[in-house]
Fold:
Amino acid sequence: MKIGILSVSQEIYSTQTLLQCGLARGHQMEVIDYRKCSMVIEQGRAEMYYKDFPLSQLDAVIPRITSSFTQMGAIVLSHLKLMKVFSTVKPDALLMARDKLRCLQRMQEVGIDVPQTAYVGNGQPIGPLISMVGGLPVVIKLLESAQGLGVILSESYRNAESTIEAFQQVNERVILQEFIREARGADVRAFVVNGKVVASMKRQARDGEFRSNLHRGATAQSEPLSLQEDYVARTAAKATGLDVAGVDILRSERGPLIMEVNASPGLEGIETFTQVDVSGKIFDFIEKKVNALKNGKVKRKVTI
Ligand code: ADP
Ligand code: MG
Structure:
């Protein structure tokens, strides 16, 4: 098959792993910098070009959209959808996963528990909101945070207030969240492919840190999920519309809470710590799906 990886660089670990995995399976692979694609809309036809290569020739794409290029990525995915190229990430699913509040609203809609959360309206008093999400300390998050960089633990009202004011000053949207103390700096990452949890690991923040992102120096190990965790991970991925998803779960006294659903989950940590060939699972899914589409077993959905 001809499969494109949408990525800003070949050098990124996950891009390289997917590239090698696809080549080893005999696919024709192309890394496509989606920021440099030209898109054409003509009567009855849509096309996209990358360095003169018409992307309608592709059987499938695996998007690895960086958080700073979400909007551009979604436009490219919408165009590929018009062109009927199969993608492991749909544009709407990408947009939902990249907005923490929208994602939490969706979890609420499908009955999945999340930490108590409040969106702070511009210039609004935050004292009452802090009480509503369980008091101090409180977690402050940028809606578009990634790799733990926009996540802060605030111990005082004064500090929380000035942090939020500073973010709002630069037009960043923020949420306040109940601090799940009993998680003790750990969370669980469940990797979901095509509706199944294919690998899972527990990540533990380093000493003095509450964020368990591997990019923030956390350590990890393979971790089996409880039946309930497996269910919420699959439901969260499905509700977001993601066929490939990294679902982050906090273990709380009232059960598993979904923190977020990642649309471009990293492969390095999960493959290293669990020894599962997650890339292979992604290709198994693509091969199955593309073959079914070719044989007309699956109808392409067109929604108006
Ligand atoms: P990012 O998208 O930047 O990774 P997350 O919402 O996943 O943001 O938060 C990063 C990390 O911070 C999580 O993996 C978790 O360890 C910790 N964390 C986030 N929210 C909470 C919370 N409400 N209570 C306790 N720890 C949290
Ligand atoms: Mg996270």
